[in-house]
Each structure stands twice: as C-alpha cells, then as structure tokens.
Amino acid sequence: MSKPNYTGVYQMESQENMDAYLSALDINIVLRGLVCLLKPSKDITHNPDTGAMTIRTMTTLRNFNMDFTIGEEFTEDLGPVDGRKCQTTVSWDGDKLQCVQRGEKEGRGWTHWLDGERLHLEMRVQNVIAKQVFKKM
After folding, report:
1. CA distance 39 to 18
2. What torsion, rounded to 10 degrees, do the Cα atoms 122, 35, 38, 133 define?
3. What percent of the chain is predicted at pLDDT more than 90?
4. For 88-126, what is each residue's pLDDT tens digit?
5. What pLDDT score was predicted for residue 104?
6. Is the pTM here over 0.90, yes or no?
7. Cβ 100 vs Cβ 82: under 8 Å
8. How far is the CA of 91 from the CAs of 20, 22, 41, 51, 137, in angstroms?
9. Alpha helices in the chain (DSSP H)
10. Strand partners, 112
C-alpha cells in the first residue's frame, strides 16, 4: 500500500495544551503567551518516490523550515523554536509520520497524520502532549 502524500498548504484550526508543552521546553512565560496566540500555517512539499520532505511552518512571529528524507537521521537546528539542536529521524508508522528528536529533552518528537482534509500534529516532550489540527487550503 502506498503512503499518503502530505503536499499542501494547511491553516491551523485548533490547538490543545500548547502552554504546558512550551513550558516543558523551558520557554519563558512571555514567549509562551505569544506563541499560544499564533495561528501558524504549514506548507508541506512531499515527494513520495524519494521520501524527501520540506515542512515550512509560518507565523507572524517567526518561521521554521524542516528539510529531511524520511527514514534518514539528520541534525535539526531548533534555534527558531527553543535554541537547541538535536538528532532527528522521521519515519513511517503506518500512514503516520513519526518523528523522534534525540537531544537535551527526553521523549521529544511529534506525529503527523492526515484525516481527509485535516492535518493532525501531536507534539511530545517529557510526557507532555500538545495537539494541533490544520485544514488544507
């Protein structure tokens, strides 16, 4: 069975538990408040044949680009997010994209999956989970 193609532009519809997630990342309270007000969009380019993927997360505060090949570990610079670097691997778990980020924080990573026109994102760090839902534009 072929894997889904995540290519598209998605606008955030909802989020849950973001302040607790950011707190677990040691983000200061002022920046956490700003981030929780943002409504990011995601521009994803995915080549299912090669596994190459780019996820651009765009906000009015700052943007974050992630370029990778599914299944290959790479050094991720999370400077725009929390100033850290980590070793990151994004792999398939069925039809879901499962990310493991090895670094200073235990249990850090995320999962993306599609449900119709909706893109779901579950972010994890130190047993804290935040969720966002995006709608394809």
Report:
1. 12
2. 10
3. 78
4. 999 999 999 999 999 888 999 999 999 999 999 999 999
5. 83
6. yes
7. no
8. 26, 24, 22, 10, 25
9. 18-24, 29-37
10. 97, 121
> Is 90 buried (19+), middle (13-18) or exposed (0-12) by CB count in 10 A?
buried
Scanning the structure block, which residue is given the tokens 């651009």?
56
How far is CA 102 from each of CA 3, 65, 99, 106, 122, rounded to the nearest angstrom? 25, 18, 10, 7, 17
Locus of tokens 């765009």: 58
Q: Which domains does the chain have, with CATH numbers?
A: 8-132 (2.40.128.20)
Q: Give the pLDDT score at 95.
A: 94
Q: Is 33 helix (H, G, I), strand (E, B) or coil?
A: helix
Residue-wise pLDDT for 1-19, tens only, equals 678 999 999 999 999 999 9
* Closest C-alpha among 113, 7, 92 to residue 53: 7
Length in residues, the chain: 137
Asked whether the beta carbons of 4 and 95 are under 8 A apart, the reply is: yes
